[in-house]
Design goal:
The protein has 2 helices and 4 strands, in the order βαβββα. By secondary structure, it is an alpha/beta fold. It has one domain. Strand 1, helix 1 and strand 2 form a beta-alpha-beta unit. The N and C termini lie far apart (31 Å).
Length: 99
């Protein structure tokens, strides 16, 4: 595992451009075994959200998932490189919870 200052405990990956293979999902979960990683929205607060879509829009049933999350937005299909970039960003960012 790459050296990160901190890692997110709860991650949401919303891939609206393509589908994620089971192999990629397994690789992601093995990379951060102590983190909750969802590929569909649940009513919990996430630390890091990946949104892969052509336009920046959320179609959420709940507001809580993204209210204090760091959001990574890309206009391309999701791959492991994007996951690592997001983790690096999260590791370096200052979490101020809207303050």
């Amino acid at each position: 595992m790459l050296p990160f200052k901190k890692t997110p405990k709860k991650i949401l990956i919303l891939n609206n451009i393509g589908t994620l293979s089971q192999d990629l999902k397994i690789k992601i979960r093995k990379f951060l075994p102590n983190s909750l990683i969802d590929f569909e929205e649940n009513d919990i607060q996430y630390d890091l959200v990946f949104l892969l879509d052509y336009i920046f829009k959320f179609n959420l049933q709940y507001y809580k998932p993204i209210s204090v999350a760091e959001i990574i937005f890309k206009r391309q299909t999701f791959d492991f490189k994007i996951f690592e970039e997001g983790l690096r960003h999260y590791s370096d960012c200052e979490i101020r919870n809207g303050v």
